[in-house]
Amino acid sequence: MRPNKARARMEADLQAAERETIPHIQSIGRGDVQDEFTFTFAHPQIAYGQIEIRVMPQDVAGYPSDNSFLVYTNDEVSSEIGETLDNAMTSTADMCIESLLRAISRQICSVLDVQDGNRDGNASMMDADVDADLHSASESYGSGDDDILFDSDDSDDGEALFDFSNDDNFGGADGARNIVRTSISDAVLSTIRQDFRTVRDAGFRVGKICGVDYVSNTSIMTMSIKARKLGLSSETHTAWNLEPSDYVVLLIQYSGAYVSFEDAIKKPTQQIPIEFRLRKCSRYRPEIEEAFSAFKPIDKNHPEKSNQEIMPKEAGGLFAFGVGSSTELLLDSGFLPMMKIRRQTNASWDDAKIIYSEATKSQRDRGSIEIPTSRSKSTDTGDKNLPPILRNDNMLSKQPTLPLVAMQFALRYLVKCTDYCMICHNRIAENFDALKPYVCGNSLCLFQYMNLGLGPSTDHEIINQEHVVDLLVSFCYASISNSWDKPRMREFPLGLNLRVPHIRDLTYTKKTDRDIIITNYGILIDPIEIEVSWLDSKVVLPDILQGNRPNMTIGQWIVIHTGTAFHKDTSKTVKMDVFHYARVTQIIGSVLWLHIASSHPVRMTPKNRKQYQDLDWQQAEPQKAHMVLCDLLLDDLETDFERSFSLTLLLHTLPSVGEMRSFLLGNPARQLATWDRFLPAAMRLLRWIIASNRSFIVQVDDPSGGASKGLDRSQERISGLSGWTQFRFAQGSPEKEALFLTALQEVKKPVRTILAWHGSSLGNWHSIIREGLNFDVVSNGRSYGDGVYFSPRFDESLGYSNHHRARWSLTNTDIDTHTALAIWPQSSLQITEAISLNELVNLPERFKCFTPIYVVHALHWIQCRYLFVRTGSSIDHTPQDSKRSKADEFKQDKEYVIQGPSGQKIYVPKVAIPSAAESQRNGSSTKLEVDVPESWDTDDEDVEDAEFLAPEDDTKNCAADPSEHLSSTLCYQKSQTDFRPGSLDYSLLPQLARPSYATKPAQQTIQRELMKLQKVQSEVPLHELGWYMDFERIENMFQWIVELHSFDPTLPLAKDMKAAGITSVVLEIRFLRGFPVTPPFVRVIQPRFLPFAMGGGGHVTAGGAMCMELLTNTGWSPVSSMESVLLQVRLAMCNLEPKPARLDSRSSSRQYGIREAVDAYTRAASMHGWEVPAELKEVTME
């Protein structure tokens, strides 16, 4: 079969396999090189639940009959699984892709079945080793009960929380293999409820999503708090993509027995079946499907999908958010051991983390742990600046509760996330209180940070902040440009496996005779002379290399250098040095077939880029060229000059940010990483540039002349700076913001802050937005002492930016690399200058110097507010300044008024300086929304949650055995209700057979609801309950008969019932095929109500069906309990608005028919725009 046809067949088979359901096979996708594909093998016995497997066909032209597959994984797996994958090349030969996947799945499962017999013992031994090390560490730290920490012996677990059955539960996960399955006791249930009441009493919202009952094998509980109560500034909310109205939700999933605080202390960590997820939600509790989805394994092919925030704002939506992902990792990996350490040693959380890190390190290398026997000072700092709800520490109480300890732990690390590395979670030593979290200086942490997809989504940032991404790349390019005497980048992206071309700059001192110099540019290292055919996209290697050919493989990246090209208009050959970046797609003998990803002139000047666009490579004849490999590891380069030059080469290959955005918007399913114009190293470099930005930057102006994308920020624009593009710019963690506020309290002047400009060379801004304004590096001398230099005069600060060099480079396009270009050629902004506007504490007399310029040595006295850049375009797109209201202007201190360009006055709106504006009103800085009345949280508490948290009533039961509380022995007082159970004649009511769709999951769900209602009915006095079910008469659990009774005697409905001698309203509830995803159908059987058109109400339709959004697909939630449904239906009947419910005195004894009920229900739903369950029509057929 010809290669193209075979590849097309294989591509079709791969797409077909993606649609198939293959046991344990998930996330089938494309690999990093052509023809390679990947998939995830998911299994509960695999570490972390899944492994990523890569498959490379060895002979595409022979697929499928004459092909074999190389199957491997980069994940850590057992030797048996590794051997299975190694043998797959022979065992899966001649197979199509689907057969291959099924075979691998069967083979790995066979290995796991063999391993299963030893799994429990091995896990226990491993856990015991770690626990022993932690125990030793804690003993060296402090004194305490030797037996309380990390006891690996089997202990009495008490009664398990759940009664496991062989049937699957709706939405539930499979039960763990080694969990004892027993019924929950009243004592354990009481403990659970008390634990979560403690959480509620501490100020958090509690949600019972599923389980915590007699039959479920998985339980999920949530705890939440409004983000506005975390004490974050408005800039922090925006930078973290966390709206003040959002809830921060901690989900806890229990698989098996409920884990109390005491249980967690006694058991080895590996034996505690508990998982955590930290999410944001617009409601205090998510939907059940969203909760279960949160605990699904991460797609290792696309880990960034788990943390990206490209998502609509929906009611109740549960979303991951970037800064929360790191805290979530710590919750699942370190929280429980750290909690045990704190319990044993009374250490702080930070000290417990140190002990845990040293203990786990000891477990790896078997070295000794040296922990001081005491610490005179805790490493925890800054907690005093947290809001009160976060300063509380349940660990210090006499009886800690695990859920509350976990919630306080999660929020503490979330709010202080910028103090810690997002991977190892150790405190970051750098003296920069960033606004966004990042990693420490360990290159391994940076590698894992990028591979796990943490931080902002590259695609999301490009779509929503195109010009901010352009600015970030431009700043990076300027920092590594050879325009400067030395590179200005302070930290290079090492540890990311960035592979760069074998091309060096002209300062390279190890040149050999084989190397080729490109005049006024650089050196090709050990190039290969080739012949390239552009029409066929192929390269022919010379015969002389037959015995000394480089190790070329499919997927290898190369760079081709050509010195001439074909001009499309003149049809002549012109001289121009061009780099072509290509990936090898096929190798046959000495011929390489290529995919050309990127081509650009070697000298990337505006003039050369324009000339390059006139070239026609398809018409060019085959030509001689030179080729070098692109496999040199950036980390192996010796000098910063070499690293800078190589990074410049990668940035030259990038499309413009505008092109990237157009690509993403062209198809919602696209991802930038899959675009064939990107080198893998260039894509990783772009991700690093965006993810390593620790400042908050958002555009105010749209430099393209159109409307600014996203939120309208026109009211934030500062007037008087025509020609300068404006960005909101903020640095500083919530902790630094709190220190700034504290410093403002010392100011006794009417205006507590002053404004000032800061200018710096274009090459410095890449480091400034990552490390903050500081004085670690001397750029322009320090004539006025150590500190950060500011000026109230715009022109004076601009003088520090060396702006003449960057502007000169734009107008001199024939200059060599070593003297100029600091501007990223693909940039639409073409930034030539940058300057920031900053807010300082109004105590200039305490500055290091305050005349003629300000020198501020206290970094927490500085808050960046704006960044202004001048673009290289000759057309000024910035909006014209219009008249602004004096009332909205920020009133500056008259002694320290700032000046704009050329000394002109500028208009600064109050909203531009939020902390200063607030300080003028009430003496405080940026409004940190903490003490918000609970009534502001309009998200009503779910009825089931309220009942779950309600205190137990010691006198609630009238008999010791709940089974005695059925129809004949119910607790009621005749003097308080005229309703009598057992008086309804069931023979006159419709009786349905069990439906054909009565599946086990639906039956289990309904059975659980029946058990709950039976228990409630046995405990609550009849006149208080207001409804009654005769559980002994239920023969078909998909059809319930419920009587509503004991209405308020002042209601018109109650008066009509008394006059007609009726003591109850009889309801029928039918459960449809889709329950609990779709709502039940609820209707009145008797008596008949007065229709709405004739003055009736109570949400009863003319056909007897209930007219309620809750009972339609639009308003229904699968987590709604039937008890809450009965309560809502009863409340609706009692509602006097818009009209009270009344009985139809003409025919109150006649029953409603099912067809008229369905018809009336459908009409009412259509009128309100509510969605009706599709299976409703089945009701009328029974």
Largest sheet: 6 strands, antiparallel, barrel
- Regions with pLDDT < 50 over 5+ consecutive residues? 117-130, 135-182, 303-316, 364-379, 803-820, 919-938, 954-975
Q: Tell me the strand percentage band.
A: 15-25%
End-to-end distance: 59 Å
Strand order of the largest sheet: 14-15-18-17-16-19
SS field, number of helical segments: 30
Alpha-carbon Rg, integer: 35 Å
Overall shape: globular
Share of residues in helices: 25-40%
Average pLDDT number: 79
Count of beta strands: 31
Q: Helix/strand/pairing class, anyone?
A: alpha+beta
Question: Could you walk me through the main structural features you see in this protein, from its secondary elements to its overall organization?
Answer:
The chain is α+β, with helices and mostly antiparallel strands and 1182 residues long. The protein is 30% helix and 16% strand. The chain is built from 30 helices and 31 strands. The strands form 8 sheets. It has a 6-stranded antiparallel beta barrel with strand order 14-15-18-17-16-19. Helix 3 (97-141) runs parallel beside helix 9 (335-345) and helix 9 crosses helix 10. The chain is globular. The protein starts with a helix and ends in a 14-residue tail after the last helix. The relative contact order is 0.07. Mean pLDDT is 79; it is low at 117-130, 135-182, 303-316, 364-379, 803-820, 919-938 and 954-975.
